[in-house]
Batch of 4 targets.
Target 1
Amino acid sequence: KVLNNFDKEFPRWKGRGYEIEGFAWWQGDKDRYVEAHAVQYEKNLVRLIQTLRQEFKAPKAKFVVATLGQTPRDAPPGNDKLILDAQFAVDGVTGKYPEFKGNVATVYTHPISQGGASNSHYNGNARTYMDVGLAMGEAMVDLLKK
């Protein structure tokens, strides 16, 4: 709705228009509570990327995914690990989804999380949010340079 009324919503930029260059996604917490959701997470994430690009008429928009910070790569099998693996699977460097090569990146947030978990919003730790935001921003800049 806002983008369809761009000139009205952003009068300072009237007539300039806009171009969506990228999307950022740091979600997955609620899906980890139900195994059926966790099992479908990768398929749904792929569909989300494709749908957002289509809906916003931005087929070349870059996409950065951040993993859930509480889940290490060597996590035991379970819903958290399913979500983590799905988030890594869409990264363009894996080759699993050739259409994502050079335009989708995954940021591993476990090493930069300052404790807590996604369901507790990382205990409200501002440093976690700043560090994850910076890492996602750096990943986006790298994608935009390609």
Target 2
Amino acid sequence: ELVYSPLIDVKEYPENVDVCLVEGAVASEADLLKIRRVRDRTRTLVAFGDGAVTSNVPGMRNPISTEPLLTRAYLENVTVNAQVPSQVVPRLLPKALPVHAVVEIDVFLPGCPPSADLIYTALDDLIAGRRPDLSHRARFGR
């Protein structure tokens, strides 16, 4: 049963979730609060894709830091009342982090995106109540 996703209009992450596939890096204060809540309420947490596993593309901002990034995105080359949004855009963390840097991860599915075979194998194992052993199937950079 699917209980939480962008496809379902549920505003609060439910209690007692068996499996959660989380994608993307932890890049903002909102992300940090949400992933901690998800970890507390989920039995098996899966880092799904290179964004969650390594911080991948969001992590490209890490050497720059947030101020120059926000200045470039919102203030440069703008002529009328430019300002960095503070209500619509969540406050960024100093660095974008892979999910395992913030909470414990049970299963890692690398790839951008993970291969269909890797996803199938992991989900098939999880549905059957087995912990996926992807050591022979999953490699970074593929």
Target 3
Amino acid sequence: MILFSLIGEQPAPNLLPTRRLRPDLVVLAHTARTAPIAANLKALLEPECACRLCEVDPYEIPKIYNHLVRLVEGFSGQPLTFNLTGGTKPMMLAAYRLAQEHGSPFVYFQTEGNRSC
């Protein structure tokens, strides 16, 4: 399975679901601002699974969507899952649209009180 994760300023919403799902590959979609966080996540995750960094525009939904479409085309026939937790809201909207078009599952890491779901 290939997991597309949207990287925001907090790494836990990407780290914990990735460790739980154990994908073969994680695509870490980040912005210029979150590139250091993505690099740190890659270093933490690579002993467990392969990681690929991908810089996307933070706010232009069509640009984000088209970039993700090109990435997904390279993984034809492989199961995809999208972690919609991190990134900007426009990144989430573009990724959600792509997940919906491909019939792919998505996850959203939710924390309330002292519980993580």
Target 4
Amino acid sequence: KSSRDSDGYQRYCKDCKKALYYENHEKNRLKQKEYYELHRDACLASASKYQKANREAANTRNRKWAASNKAYKASNLAKYRAAKDNRTPSWLTEEHYNQIKEKYWLAADLRKVTGETYHVDHIVPLRGENVSGLHVPWNLQILPMDLNCSKSNMMEQMQIAAENGL
């Protein structure tokens, strides 16, 4: 049954509808990807607007997910720490470590002052596809959370090239 259709019934039975979905799944996925590429800015703006409007609901979902996926979360955190440890050179001086700490403290202070969340970002990602950076003071920058999350795991030059289709 369907309240949307004028005769009160859906066009297909559940089994046929499921089969149709699987037949067209790849084609629909490619259509969605093409639409996103053509309207990337509008899609990102819409997603950002939705996230801001529904922040509490998203936080609740994230907390529930984290509570039910502790092993997965711990695994990813351990993987990140290992990558960071493997990319922290032994030749760093105490001054370098202090500079790194200052970046993290500054990000925390900015949050207290502005109310906006800031991240300490690796300019060259620690786990990049083509190149991996080091956990050193000159590879760190402080970015607002939304900008850092939109940057994902890409260097600025790679991101610009990707946006221009290069």
